[in-house]
TrEMBL record:
Family as reported in the entry's similarity comment: Belongs to the amino acid/polyamine transporter 2 family. Mtr/TnaB/TyrP permease subfamily.
Functional note: Involved in transporting aromatic amino acids across the cytoplasmic membrane.
A GO BP annotation: amino acid transmembrane transport
Pfam families documented for this protein: Trp_Tyr_perm (PF03222)
The organism of origin for this protein: Vibrio furnissii
PROSITE patterns, per database record: AROMATIC_AA_PERMEASE_1
GO cellular component, one term: plasma membrane
Protein name: Aromatic amino acid permease
Keywords per UniProt: Amino-acid transport, Cell inner membrane, Cell membrane, Membrane, Transmembrane, Transmembrane helix, Transport
Transmembrane segments: 40-62, 82-102, 122-142, 149-167, 179-197, 218-236, 271-294, 306-325, 331-353, 374-397
Amino acid sequence: MMKSKLLGSTLIIAGTTIGAGMLALPLASAGIGFSTSLMIMFALWAMMAFTALLMVEIHQYADKDATLHTLAKQILGRKGKWVATFAMLFLFYALCAAYIAGGGAQFTSRIGELTGLEVNGPTGTLIFTLIVAAVVTIGTGTVDRVNRLLFAGKMVAMVMVLSFLAPNVSQSYLLSMPLGQGLVIASIPVIFTSFGFHGSIPAIVNYLDGHTPSLRKAIVIGSAIPLIIYVFWQIVTLGVVSQPQLVENAGLSALIGTLSQTVHQSNLGNVIGIFADLALLTSFLGVSLGLFEFMGDTIRKKDGNMNRMVASLATFVPPLMFALFYPQGFIMALGYAAIALAVLAIFLPLMMVSRVRRQSKEGTYYQVMGGTPALAITGVVGILIVGAQLLITIGVLPSLG
């Protein structure tokens, strides 16, 4: 049973990561070239895996069903709880809004292709959200089973896309240099968000009964799978389409259309469309599961049980409203999510792990390697990410997508 849960947890982490990140990476990397994006990806993956393991270390000091704001209150006090709560809500709602906006549009298009029925955008988005909400509300076990099926389909679609695109890779395209230093810094928040799965860690900890060795394996393997896939994806997207074309077609639908036209394969557009659907759906499942667990813990009944229907409404209604009013808000929502993700996945774990390490005896609990230098370097990178997004917001750095 534990091995089955370990596999499921690994795939939930991988599926949560390979979603918006897969689709946003070529858009964020268009102006900086393959080599530069590769270095940034490896550095940010290592940092995100490190901070995820810090979360595992922190969870040893609490119940296995503790959420982030429970941990923050226990370790950092009341102020820590409010910071964690705000960051978690901002991140989850921003990501869910991005997935509903992107996934709803894709789902609406897919209904028209498969059934011939004309469904307007808001209706398709609503149906898409209701389907995901039903799966998440039933429970983590259901998300696990559905995610395994979708993840397998996503891998098949991805292999087909790679096989179509790989023969058309041009070495000269891959050797393109950054168009400007500002674009390198501006790409960091979106690439950083592409490795975000930390919001689902509390649900995974609960699902694996707080078993530290299994959690470490799930996080390392689950986060490494997206990194490997991202590298191949960057090769076949940045290597098939010229840098000027990518910069000019800075949108999800435009990217899919450009790839299809460049390769001249009639079936490629459909395969990429299906892949994009599954990528958004698996990522949406993982993120909304984390938000659902968070909301359920926040609004528990007096008897301690979760009010699943109320938690579901609180999880899905706010991002649905955003997606209905801003249907093109995919990249915009991901950019702003980077600030909240930096607080959630970098600054809070650093603060909490520093506190618990001072209070615990060495050797009693599992500790992540690296010591104080690793914590300091991670903190500096976090400040850089937040600073980059703030500079984009005020117009000093160029916006992407």
